[in-house]
Specification:
Layout (H helix, E strand, L loop, with lengths): L8 H26 L8 H25 L13 H22 L7 H24 L4 H6 L2 H16 L17 H10 L8 E3 L5 E3 L9 H21 L10 H13 L6 H28 L1 H25 L2
Antiparallel strand pairs: 1-2
Helix pairs in contact: 1-3, 2-3, 2-11, 3-4, 4-11, 6-8, 6-10, 7-8, 9-10
The structure holds protoporphyrin IX containing FE (HEM) (2 copies).
One protoporphyrin IX containing FE (HEM) binds next to helix 2, helix 3, helix 4 and helix 11.
Length: 322
């Protein structure tokens, strides 16, 4: 977004950082070289303060705009969230020199100093977020709020097990209709007639050629224990289940051990179980990255809201004595 997608991430990040640094430092260099400082309490100083405040109010309005994301249309240009965001970033950087010049590149007493610190932190968090977003595919920002991903992961994972994604409870332990249990039963239960057509894992059908279970006795017991104790909890609750399958290395080892204890005909089915655990690991990793990439937004929002509040106190107090 904002910057040409044809540019590499490194180039886009460099542009953001260089433009921000230039906006902050060039007025300082100019004023120093010409020794022409603007006094905060002069007319120009106060006008710059007011201009800064106007920009900051516009910046804060993005919060309101995002709450009404679904409204489209009028006014045609700025009402587009992407355009708004672009203007937000440009003005967010443009307000930096305005306020720095207003404050004479200093801090002053407690209230103006606090305003300045929060102001700089707000800009820094905005720039940080923009930099971080360069790594994130645009579709993810636009369409997938974190909660949706989180609840979908649990729902899809639960479908493999056959339980509804509800709070873990004994009652649901008997609700074994998902792919995992169908697979387990096809391996360990007797009674599949030769020639009987069974639903195959992952769709389609297989022709059963045996009436005796493929896996029996101790290995069958171990297989069920593995699925119920490690795989199902992992699919349903991910990392928080404490299952060793959360680690790719441990998972590979466990599945290897499992294969060794079973006849080769069962390996395909075990491969499928391993794949399900792999899915959960991938989704969780995706979710972690997604959450991490969004974590800065509340920080940016909190800082900007606090800054706006303190700025109003500073402005009212300063104007009282002006
Ligand atoms: C983010 C916004 C703002 C920041 C960070 C900020 C910061 C500062 C700083 C650092 C000073 C210098 C204090 C000193 O040297 O003693 C100052 C002075 C001043 N500011 Fe602001 N300011 C902001 C917004 C405003 C606004 C909206 C107004 C209202 C018009 C305003 C009015 C003044 C006035 C009148 C002074 C000179 C009197 C004084 O020092 O109290 N400022 N400001
Ligand atoms: C005084 C300056 C600024 C203020 C007051 C401000 C305030 C805000 C607010 C209130 C939001 C909405 C947060 C939410 O939806 O929860 C926002 C979002 C955002 N701001 Fe700023 N901002 C400022 C400067 C900047 C700067 C300098 C940048 C980048 C260079 C920036 C980048 C962003 C981005 C990318 C978002 C969208 C976050 C998202 O929806 O993923 N902001 N800002």
């Amino acid at each position: 977004m904002l910057l040409s997608k044809n540019w590499s991430v490194g180039r886009r990040v460099a542009v953001i950082l260089v433009v921000t640094a230039a906006a902050g430092l060039i007025p300082y260099a100019v004023m120093r070289a010409t020794d022409s400082w603007v006094l905060p309490s002069s007319r120009t100083g106060v006008l710059l303060g007011l201009l800064g405040a106007a920009i900051i109010f516009f910046e804060m309005a993005l919060y309101v705009r995002k709450k009404f994301r679904r409204f489209k249309g009028w006014p045609p240009l700025l009402w587009n969230v992407r355009v708004w965001l672009w203007v937000h970033v440009v003005l967010g950087i443009a307000v930096l020199p305005v306020i720095l010049v207003h404050g004479k590149y200093g801090f002053g007493g407690f209230v103006p100093a606090l305003t300045m610190v929060l102001f700089l932190a707000t800009i820094a968090s905005g720039v940080w977020g923009l930099v971080v977003q360069q790594w994130l595919p645009q579709e993810l920002i636009d369409t997938v709020p974190d909660e949706t991903v989180a609840s979908q992961v649990n729902r899809v994972a639960a479908a493999y097990v056959g339980r509804k994604p509800v709070v873990w409870s004994k009652e649901h332990d008997r609700d074994r209709t998902g792919e995992i249990f169908r697979l387990l039963e096809s391996l360990t239960l007797e009674g599949a007639e030769p020639g009987e057509v069974l639903p195959a894992p992952g769709g389609g059908a297989v022709v059963a050629a045996r009436s005796e279970a493929l896996v029996r006795g101790k290995p069958a017991e171990e297989l069920w224990k593995f699925c119920e104790g490690l795989l199902v909890p992992y699919l349903e609750r991910g990392r928080s289940s404490g299952s060793p399958l959360a680690s790719e290395y441990d998972a590979r080892r466990r599945f290897m051990q499992l294969r060794e204890s079973l006849p080769a005909e069962a390996w395909d089915a075990i491969g499928r179980l391993e794949q399900l655990a792999q899915y959960r690991r991938e989704w969780d990793a995706q979710q972690r990255v997604n959450g991490w990439l969004h974590a800065w937004v509340p920080v940016h929002l909190g800082l900007s809201a606090a800054m706006t509040g303190v700025m109003l106190v500073h402005a009212v107090r300063a104007m009282k004595y002006w």
